[in-house]
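Protein in question quoted for reference:
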Amino acid sequence: MTDTADRTTTSADPVDEVKAWLADNWDPDLTVAEWWERLGTSGWGVPTWPSDWFGKDLSRAEGVRVQQAIADFGALPAPGGLGLMLAGPTIAVHGDDDQKTRYLRDIVTGQKAWCQLFSEPGAGSDLAGLNARAVKDGEEWIVNGQKVWTSGGHVADLGMLIARTDPDQPKHAGITYFVIDMHQPGVDVRPLKEMTGRALFNEVFLEDARVGDDTMIGGLNNGWRVANTTLMFERSSLGAGGGSAAASLASPGTVAGDLGRRAGDFVSSGGRRGGGGGTLFGASSKSLTKIAQGNGRAQDPSIRQKLMQLHTIGEVARFNNLRLKAAMAAKKDIPGLPNISKLLMSQTVRLSRDVGLEIAGGYGMLHAYDGDDRKVLDEATGMPYLSGITEMALFAQGPPIYGGTDQVQRNIIGERVLGLPKEPGFDKGTPFKDLPKNG
């Protein structure tokens, strides 16, 4: 076992390779930390990363197939969360070798959990309007400001922070991207309870928190460029066909408390082969079809039509991945595809919401807001899938907003792909400190 994964030199199907590797290495009695150490350093944890940095140089489509193969085998998949999805890929692109050494191993092995400190109360869709300040103090920066809609902030060890370091520059300049220690004094994380009953998001208050020069990713005042790389990975990961269905049920990092637990307890098969499976949340046409067949609603022409539409969107997303794989093999790209994938995801969750509630019928008006209530509701209705449908319906309003609203995605496609003129404005060359501010 080496710190850096060996480069894949054969032309064999990566799914066959990872199955053979799992047969030799998966042990449900290992702790989560021990298993993720084995998986992450093998290169199979994040096979789309460079082989020099814990990957296998695979395409995104091949990476999705590998993810699903690990889940289908009944092994615990790679650590989920924003470290693997956003921080790691961004550091791989913009970080120096010292930063890659410092951060990437702890991401692929699940030792550190991450959050994204981008959005602010007055800077959401207009992210470049952020007001959080970082002021130079020797070899450190003192950070003050407020962030909001921070997914997983309550369990994060590290954060991806963008803060304004030069208000004399225009708003898209003068921003720097830092890695911040979430456990330090001056970082106050407050959960935001959603209408689903959960609190996945948080607001974060930064008061004289500190970041070092060596945590600066991509250089001083270059944070907008680095942040756009993070957003590109976010749209690709959240977009339809992103492969998140095989994400791990164990949580990375020192706060969640899963690293010392038995790895086999986090797979539905109890650690045996063939477990796999996922949750209804973010339901596919296949899972909703099974439910409709089970309660007799599959004969309804309207429901059948919507299920077919949901299946079609999934197939479009799958073929887009194949198109991207072919383009990358020819050293080309498909401009705007991450944005298109994000729009497809928004359409998927809205349609899943609508058809899910139709399948549930009147029971769709019932929702349980915690684990105990879910058990009571399951017993009362005899419908163990109901809470998944209603939670998905309540949460469906979120994905078209986070990760960049649908309107932002369409603007990007219009301006950067189709070449349409940008909206007029005077903020491009005006120093940020001279721009009018809300409130």
Observations:
- The chain is about 40% helix and 10% strand.
- Residues 301-329 form the longest helix (29 residues).
- Strands lie at 114-117, 133-137, 140-147, 158-164, 175-181, 187-192, 201-212, 216-217.
